[in-house]
Write a structure and sequence with these properties.
alpha/beta, Rossmann fold, 2 domains, 7-stranded parallel beta sheet, 17% strand, globular
Length: 376
């Protein structure tokens, strides 16, 4: 995988909890380990950028909070920072994760700097196409950003098809699935379960940024139905405030059966302490949370939406049900909680699938090959 030429790569990503930032950060570490120079550019330190590496640096772009502006602006400062950086040093690649504002900023910065020769790779992660792409305020900007990118990648075949259906004139578009490298366990299963106040209860886990598309309302409804059939606890690792769901939690009688932890960095410790994963999203381009569970041998129940079927194979590493079928999903969850032998069987298949199809070596090699092709 290692090449003779070491590249200088600017990695533009959102800093908050979510698949796009996690992939960008993980990819940055992987390619830095191979000797390439990676500069992360974002409004805050990315969520998973927690370990020092000699080939990685971070540039913070502070939003402008001007009294005339109703909200702080980060897009123009990002463009300005890119212009300044490209005058100081020439990047080979600007890799933008998410169309808005990152790909848009990269395309505008390149047009404003006539002597900059960097190539632009844009990786789409889902809501930038599925949600913002349907908005008249953003659709033309996204179209222009994709047209101005030298190559566009999508994290699933499902997202690639949606992108091609919505936008035209893209130079190149291909699928590179998300990947996951298991990280060192900081606290073992027993320690985490003790900290969570668990005894012999089976633990169901969900991890996400809690955006509306994640349909936490349906997740709570599913869990409540399963709880009527067998005892268990639900752990939600969220990247946002959970109080908006508190009324539903109380109405469903879940207060004593639910644990919420916010902005957990070492999610691998908590996944290792869990028995089953659950995801009830309305749409997922890939769902990195599903892959994280599978990689740790935790079978998953989820709705059959978007790119999830490319990750999770029904009946082998978990169960998929049509969107909204909370009763069926609750029955699947109950079965996995009750049947230790079945859960172990699916656990082994889930782990094997994650390791064979979504390894970092496989994905990183494809990204690096694209980088090298772009720079010639």
């Amino acid at each position: 995988m290692e090449t003779d030429r070491k590249l200088k790569i600017a990695m533009l990503c959102h800093p908050s909890v979510g698949g796009s930032g996690i992939l960008a950060t993980t990819l940055g570490y992987e390619i830095a380990e191979l000797g390439h120079q990676v500069t992360f550019i974002s409004t805050k330190t990315p969520f998973r950028l927690i370990e020092h590496h000699p080939n990685i640096q971070f540039d913070e772009v502070k939003p402008v909070d001007f009294p005339l502006f109703q909200h702080p602006d980060s897009t123009l400062p990002l463009i300005s920072h890119l212009l300044q950086k490209t005058r100081e040093e020439e990047f080979d690649i600007v890799h933008a994760h998410y169309a808005v504002p990152n790909a848009a900023a990269a395309v505008i910065a390149k047009k404003l700097s006539s002597d900059s020769r960097f190539k632009i790779m844009t990786t789409l992660h889902g809501t930038d196409v599925v949600k913002l792409g349907e908005s008249p305020e953003y659709s033309e900007i996204i179209q222009t950003s994709l047209e101005g990118s030298d190559v566009v990648t999508c994290v699933s075949d499902n997202l690639k098809k949606l992108t091609q259906d919505k936008f035209s004139g893209i130079n190149e578009s291909q699928t590179i699935h998300n990947f996951y490298r298991k990280r060192k366990i900081e606290k073992n299963r027993e320690t985490i379960r003790n900290e969570l106040g668990l005894r012999d209860e089976k633990l169901v886990i969900h991890l996400s940024n809690l955006r509306k598309v994640k349909r936490i309302d349906l997740l709570l409804e599913t869990f409540a139905k399963a709880l009527k059939q067998t005892p268990m606890k639900l752990l939600i690792l969220g990247g946002a405030d959970f109080s908006v769901y508190q009324d539903q939690v109380e109405a469903l009688g879940l207060s004593d059966h639910l644990i919420f932890c916010r902005d957990v960095v070492h999610v691998q410790d908590y996944i290792e302490a869990a028995d089953v994963g659950i995801f009830c999203s309305e749409y997922e381009s890939f769902c990195l949370g599903v892959l994280e569970c599978m990689a740790h041998g935790v079978p998953v129940v989820a709705f059959d939406v978007g790119g999830i079927p490319e990750v999770l194979d029904h009946g082998s590493s978990g169960y998929l049900r049509p969107f909204g079928e909370t009763g069926q999903l609750a029955n699947d969850l109950t079965e996995l909680i009750r049947d230790n032998r079945l859960r172990l069987e699916l656990s082994l298949h889930a782990k094997q699938r994650a390791e064979s199809l979504f390894s970092p070596e496989r994905a990183v090699e494809r990204y690096l090959n694209l980088y090298q092709q772009l720079v010639g």
